[in-house]
């Protein structure tokens, strides 16, 4: 197996093990902020969200001509 691929897979394994032990709590303030954002008129079902597609198109256009540059050892 390619050593770099093996290193990446090992990193995934270590990250998965860490994720099993990591714990966090959502504070009431954070949950209230989420509820506020979800309740905004622009975040309701049925609202026109076509502006998102224009933004995604512009984002893709930005990177359309990007080329990968080989890594230097």
Describe this entry's structure for a reader.
The chain has 73 residues and is mainly α. Helix content is 60%, strand content 0%. It has helices at 3-21, 28-39, 50-62. The longest helix has 19 residues, at 3-21. The two termini are 18 Å apart.
Layout of helices and strands:
Blueprint: H1 3-21, H2 28-39, H3 50-62
Largest sheet: none
Give the helix level as a range of percent. Answer: 55-70%
Give me the count of strands.
0
The percentage of residues in β strands lies in: under 5%
Order of helices and strands: HHH
Question: What structural category do the secondary elements indicate?
Answer: mainly alpha
Radius of gyration: 21 Å
Instruction: Report, as a whole number of angstroms, the end-to-end distance.
Output: 18 Å
Shape by Cα distribution: flat
Q: How would you summarize this macromolecular structure in one to three sentences?
A:
With 73 residues, the protein is an all-alpha fold.
Defining traits:
single chain, 73 residues, mainly alpha, 3 helices, flat
């Amino acid at each position: 197996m390619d050593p770099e691929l093996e290193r990446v897979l090992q990193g995934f394994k270590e990250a998965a093990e860490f994720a099993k032990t990591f714990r966090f709590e959502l504070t009431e303030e954070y949950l209230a902020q989420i509820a506020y954002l979800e309740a905004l008129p622009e975040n309701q079902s049925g609202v026109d969200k076509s502006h998102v597609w224009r933004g995604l198109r512009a984002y893709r256009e930005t990177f359309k001509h990007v080329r990968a540059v080989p890594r230097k050892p």
